[in-house]
Amino acid sequence: MHLLYDFYGQLLTDKQRSFFELYHHDDLSLGEIAEQHGVSRQAVYDILKRAERTLEDLESKLELVARWIRERRVIYELRQELRALAEDVTRLAAELPGGGQAPGGAGVAAEGQKGAGSAALARVHARIRALEARLDLLAGDHPDAR
After folding, report:
1. Which of the four pLDDT bands, split at 50, 70 and 90, describes residue 120?
2. Which of 30, 55, 78, 100 is the most buried (most CB within 10 A)?
3. pLDDT of residue 99
4. Is domain 2-62 given the CATH code 1.10.10.10 in the classification?
5. Whole-Å CA distances, 41 to 16, 29, 33, 36, 81
6. pLDDT tens digits, one per residue of 52-111
7. 44 with 90: CB under 8 angstroms?
8. CA-CA distance, 92 to 100, in Å (whole number)?
């Protein structure tokens, strides 16, 4: 119910919003809310039920919460895959002759190959970090997303 309220609460009437917050957020009883507002417990109950029904109806039509949950799940799964990919790349690079460096011969050519292997590994890791940053932006976890 709290997620529904976060998404759709502004669409409730002022009284519905007020009673919802007192009941769900401030943990007041129906009787306490009724006393504060000079209405019966039944009136508070009816207003809360109407608010909850409104929130559920909005979600059944708009499905914003369901979509948000799906997106969060996909983002989580993609982050897990990127972490696994980064670990695989690091492990594979360590298994290469030269510990992730390109196989080398002698002299300047070997140094050039080692540098190329390190540069390729750095580029792959940079691409992984860029994808992670894009996921952060999509998830709203990035400072630029706010």
Report:
1. confident
2. 55
3. 60
4. yes
5. 14, 9, 8, 11, 52
6. 999 999 999 999 999 999 999 999 999 999 999 989 888 888 887 766 544 444 333 444
7. no
8. 7
pLDDT at 102: 44
Listing DSSP states for 69-114 in one string gives: HHHHHHHHHHHHHHHHHHHHHHHHHHHSTTTSSPP--SHHHHHHHH
Q: Which amino acid is at 142?
A: H
Residue 47 exposed, middle or buried by CB count within 10 Å (0-12, 13-18, 19+):
buried
What is the Cα–Cα distance from 70 to 24, expressed in whole angstroms? 25
SS3 content of the chain, % helix, strand, coil (to 5): 80, 0, 20
Tokens representing 73 are 């799940």
> Would the pLDDT of 31 be above 60?
yes
Give a three-class secondary structure readout of 29-41.
CHHHHHHHHCCCH
